[in-house]
Amino acid sequence: MSYSPRKKGDGRKEDLEVFHKGERWKPKAILFDLGDTLLMEEPGLSGKKHIWEIDFKRVPGAEEVLRELRHRYKLAVVTNTVTSREPQVRLALRRAGLEEYFDAVITSVDVGANKPEAAPFQEALRRLGALPSEAVMVGNRLDTDILGAKRLGIKAILLRREGIIEDKKEPRSPEEVPDYVINSLRKLPEILKLMEGVS
Predict the structure, then answer these.
(1) Taking the model in full, what pTM does it have?
(2) 126: number of CA atoms within 13 Å, CB side?
């Protein structure tokens, strides 16, 4: 059985009325996955190089989006890693020119649990001083990013970039259904404003 996202469209305000039924919702924190959300992963390199040894390319629009969002929200990376801890992930972000934008970097190795388990998300919220209801998760995987966020009551946005294998997967349960779907990271600031009910 497959499920479809509750609301998806071209960013019109009426597409997002589910988020603000008479009350203004204002998030404090935006959580980002790393691979294929902020940095493009190269096929065939998994396990062959340490994360800090790879010259990652930024996902199109990543720097401009982060530059805009950091003035409105606290930002964190929440990522599953095999051996890398926060310093190594920060080094990879620094090499890509993105490290300065993040208030926190949470790795599965540091917290001892992988997404979709609660611990990585909870640690990010703790370090950012935000409640689940005050946060948004942006990621490209239904089974880790979206599922883990939704279980905790964090709103979730699925990034479905063209050519990424995860784009072909569909939700397997209601908990994997994102609140919104975007096909470009550049659309994120506008979507967040609409979610907040800002014209």
Answers:
(1) 0.84
(2) 8
